[in-house]
Specification:
407 residues, alpha+beta, Barwin-like endoglucanases, 6-stranded mixed beta barrel, 6-stranded mixed β-sheet, 17 strands, 25% helix, 23% strand
C-alpha cells in the first residue's frame, strides 16, 4: 500500500496505504535509559535522503538467489513502472531519469522466462546506509458493504470533499508561509480552519454534504481498511466495489497500536492482546467503548474513489501486485526500482518493486510488503514484522557515479 498497506497509515497509498497500524508498535525505537535526554537532543539529525545516508556497492545481482518466478513477476512490475520512472524526479538523489532508459527500453521485449538474466544484465546492487531493513505488510481488505444504504450498513464511504482545500490561516504570519499550505476548510466567517476530524465525521459533519461511494457494515473493519488505504466492498448479493485512496482530511495520524502499547495492553500477559492487527481488532471489539475512543484518537480520515482494473493503485499510479509490490520512502528508494530483501521472515524474502508509499513508511530500509487480498493475505500482512538486509537494484554504473567525482 502503504498504501503499502500497509502495514498500516499508508498515506497516500495505495496511495498508498499507505498504513501500518503496527508501525507505531514494532518500529518505534526505544530511548536508552543510559543516554540523557539532552544528549539525545544533540544527536546528529538523520539523513534526509539516500544520497546523504551513504551508498555502497553490494553483491553482484548474479549472486542473489532470485527464482525464475520471482524474477518474472518483478519484471512485469518493472515494465509497468517504467513510464513513471522515466518522467519522475528521483528525490532520493540516487538516479537520474536517463539512467533507467536502457533497462526500460529492453524490458518490454524481454521474455519473463529469462527475467533473471534481465536483472543481472542491467542492474547492480546498492546498500543504503547500513542496509539493515525492517519490513511490515499490508493487504487489500474486503469488507461487507453496499452501494445504496440499507439497514445495518451505516458507515459512509465518502469521496474527496469539494471544500477540502489548501490555504494559509489568517493567523499564520507571512514569514512562516513556506512549503505547502495546510489542508482545511473555510468556515462561515471565511476563515481557513482545520478540516473535520474523525470524531466529527463519524458524528455526521459531512452527512448530506459529501457524496458517498457506498456504505460499510462494520465500523471496525472500515477503520482498518482506511489504514490500508484501499480495499473492496462486497454486498450480500456478491457485487464488489473496489475503492482506492483519494485524499485525507489533513489531520494527524495516530497509531492505535502505539497507544495500546503505551497503555500496556499489548503483550502476552493477563488482560493483554497480541501486538498484531488481529490482536488490536480483538481489543477494540471486546472493549467497545474504549475501542471507539481509541479509534477516534486517530483524527485522520481517508476519502476514496472507485477503482476499475485488476488491482489497487499504489503511489506510483500503477497497480500493486501480491508478493511483488513494496511500499518505501521515496526519499530513500526511487519509486519503480527493484528491491531485494533477505529477512528473518522467509516469506518476505526475494525481489520486489517499489511502487507505493506510506505515512508510517519512513527512512532508509523501511519497507511495507503487499500481500494481495483474502484471508491468507490478511493473516500474513497483519503479523508481518521482519528484519534483515535490503539491497536496492540500480542501473549499472550508478554506485560508481555517486561515489566518484561530481559529473
Amino acid at each position: 500500500m502503504p498504501a503499502p498497506l500497509a502495514s498500516l497509515i499508508r498515506l497516500p497509498v495505495v496511495v498508498g496505504l499507505v498504513l501500518t497500524v503496527l508501525a507505531g508498535c514494532a518500529a518505534e525505537p526505544k530511548k536508552s535509559p543510559l543516554i540523557p535526554a539532552a544528549a539525545e537532543a544533540l544527536a546528529a539529525p538523520a539523513p534526509s535522503s539516500a544520497a546523504l545516508a551513504g551508498v555502497t556497492r553490494g553483491p553482484s545481482v548474479d549472486a542473489l538467489t532470485i527464482s525464475a518466478g520471482d524474477a518474472g513477476t518483478a519484471l512485469t512490475g518493472f515494465i509497468e513502472s517504467c513510464p513513471k520512472l522515466l518522467i519522475r524526479e528521483d528525490v532520493s538523489g540516487l538516479s537520474r531519469r536517463a539512467d533507467w532508459q536502457p533497462a526500460c527500453d529492453a524490458a518490454s521485449a524481454w521474455s519473463t522466462g529469462a527475467a533473471r538474466d534481465f536483472f543481472i544484465r542491467y542492474f547492480e546492487t546498492a546498500r543504503i546506509s547500513d542496509g539493515r531493513a525492517f519490513a511490515t505488510g499490508y493487504f487489500e481488505p474486503e469488507i461487507e458493504g453496499v452501494r445504496t444504504r440499507r439497514p445495518g450498513y451505516d458507515v459512509p464511504v465518502y469521496v474527496l470533499p469539494d471544500d477540502l482545500l489548501r490555504a494559509w490561516p489568517v493567523s499564520t504570519p507571512s514569514a512562516e508561509r513556506t512549503g505547502r499550505a495546510p489542508l482545511g476548510r473555510y468556515d462561515a466567517n471565511g476563515n481557513h480552519v482545520p478540516y473535520f476530524d474523525r470524531a466529527a465525521i463519524e458524528d455526521g459533519a459531512l452527512a448530506g454534504r459529501v457524496p458517498v461511494i457506498g456504505w460499510a457494515k462494520d465500523p471496525v473493519e472500515f477503520f482498518f481498511l482506511q489504514i490500508q488505504g484501499s480495499g473492496r466492498l462486497r454486498s450480500p448479493e456478491g457485487e464488489v466495489i473496489r475503492i482506492g485512496y483519494a485524499g485525507q482530511n489533513g489531520r494527524g495520524y495516530t497509531s492505535v497500536g502505539r497507544v495500546l502499547r503505551e497503555r500496556d495492553r499489548l503483550g502476552d500477559g493477563p488482560g493483554q492482546y497480541p501486538g498484531s492487527m488481529q490482536g488490536i481488532m480483538a481489543f477494540i471489539r471486546e472493549n467497545p467503548e474504549e475501542g471507539r475512543a481509541l479509534m477516534r484518537l486517530n483524527q485522520s480520515w481517508i476519502f476514496f474513489r472507485e477503482l476499475t482494473g485488476d488491482g489497487p493503485l499504489g503511489a506510483l499510479g500503477v497497480p500493486v501486485r501480491r508478493e511483488a509490490s513494496i511500499a518505501a520512502d521515496p526519499a530513500f528508494v526511487p519509486l519503480g526500482a527493484p528491491v531485494w530483501l533477505d529477512l528473518d521472515r522467509d516469506e518476505a524474502d526475494g525481489l520486489w518493486i517499489a511502487q507505493d508509499t506510506g505515512g508510517a513508511i519512513k527512512g532508509a530500509n523501511r519497507f511495507d510488503t503487499f500481500w494481495g487480498a483474502g484471508p491468507e493475505a490478511r493473516a500474513i500482512a497483519g503479523g508481518m514484522s521482519g528484519r534483515g538486509d535490503a539491497w536496492l537494484l540500480l542501473p549499472k554504473g550508478t554506485v560508481a557515479r555517486l561515489n566518484g567525482p561530481t559529473p
